């Protein structure tokens, strides 16, 4: 199909030029032929007096198609992992803090919960690979430029300690090893809960990339709130005070970070501000945290309900962030308009300077 | 933290080749593209890229839609009610021009896909191009949202990332890439990047002199957000009209700051959870 020439719209052959162009091909064939150096649009007189002199600076695109390719990550795997990874990391940290402050039941609940969430995380991560059997290829390099590579090594450090802490807590075997693993998992757990923010921000997806300042705090808060929720659900009321406080602190940090991000991102923040999942997540987290703090110390039923709300809230928040990012990647306006504004700003600065 | 020195190979100049050939690339001069799609066909034939025709789109002559795992060259067709230079379109009283452009992987100087690849499957070749090693890739898909141009994709059939290799196999035996070889108007020109850039400047000047004021180069500037591209273009309208980002920036440029923020959040999480447990401690 040679559409252009049939309709007379193709390249018009211009006169041969004197500036012979050198050939840079590898196969040694001769240079560009003169007749190929056509200058379309140079012939003819054109129409006069119908040019719009000022064109409106409106957003343009190629048939409304996105500039970016759609991320291939599945929400139940990757958004699910953002939730489970946060839960695993913060639960391990809360468990370590509980153990060191003499709350063995809360510690055990955190360790077992962390191990379960970690198992779910690993399943999701491997399941999302195009070639799951090649999971091990992640371990052939360490790249600080790839948050996924860094995350792989963080999980490699966290995983054995997390499972060892849970195993020793349940069986009662090797208490010293268990204590060391608990502390180790508690320390590395903070990295597990927060590196995922860098993971999604280090992409060209507008809402994820531009939110990179608040995202780690949003994720840390959401992780702490979910770990608090799990502690309320699983630990006896008498030991669960730190879990209730963690939920309040986490939900507050998550809310503040989310509001800041939505405001600072301006136009690109629209998918975040529109997200019903994010609204629901914030309501569940704040409601659960508040209910847990007020009633969770007295009523087992209230503690369970508040804990469940906190877990659901954290999951909603992560799915909300995930889908808002997908929406921002799918609309060329969120890619083109900020870049146009950046160019215009740079041009204005050049003109002034 | 300087990411570029932390990772040899992330940047073209530091890819670790003691003696290497000149950086090779494409100059795609869209002003002479006739939309024949020979480049798409040649690419598919040479690289055994699977069929991906799905439907009639109604987007002028474009049924390829965009670049992806199964489309390594994509010819865009844009119909506009405005004139091209002094040209008389010959369609009644209506102004009309038809823009055609063959898009391809940009082989960025700062390539986000390569930076974020967690297996090292994506690497920098001795020609300064960016290539996926199919036997290493595990299909994590991180490169897909990392690319600011929407080039690389994950193939459904084998689960692996795939994109233009600038015909790495052909380069190694002194052949030019299949698309450039087949292009009947030399809209796709292959060669040493430095020389192509000079050639493009001359071509731009010539087009502007002949009244095509909308002509511009895209991706030729080593100071842009991706350090300049190995495959660059001469366009006749703004980049976004062709589906290209007007000011792409490699996402890893902000990664040092992302790590600092993540580190601060991790420390805050540790302090916060320690603090909530400290109150009312039992030993």
Automatic annotation (TrEMBL), chain A:
GO terms for cellular component: plasma membrane. InterPro entries: Electron_transfer_protein (IPR052049), NrfD-like (IPR005614). It comes from the Bacteria. Its main location: membrane. The keyword Zinc does not apply. Residues 1-49 are annotated as: Disordered. This is Formate-dependent nitrite reductase, membrane component NrfD. It comes from Nonomuraea pusilla.
TrEMBL record, chain B:
GO terms for molecular function: 4 iron, 4 sulfur cluster binding; metal ion binding. [4Fe-4S] cluster 2 binds at residues 43, 164, 167, 179. [4Fe-4S] cluster 1 binds at residues 33, 36, 39, 183. Keywords: 4Fe-4S, Iron, Iron-sulfur, Membrane, Metal-binding, Repeat, Transmembrane, Transmembrane helix. Its cofactor is [4Fe-4S] cluster. [4Fe-4S] cluster 3 binds at residues 105, 108, 113, 147. This is Formate dehydrogenase iron-sulfur subunit.
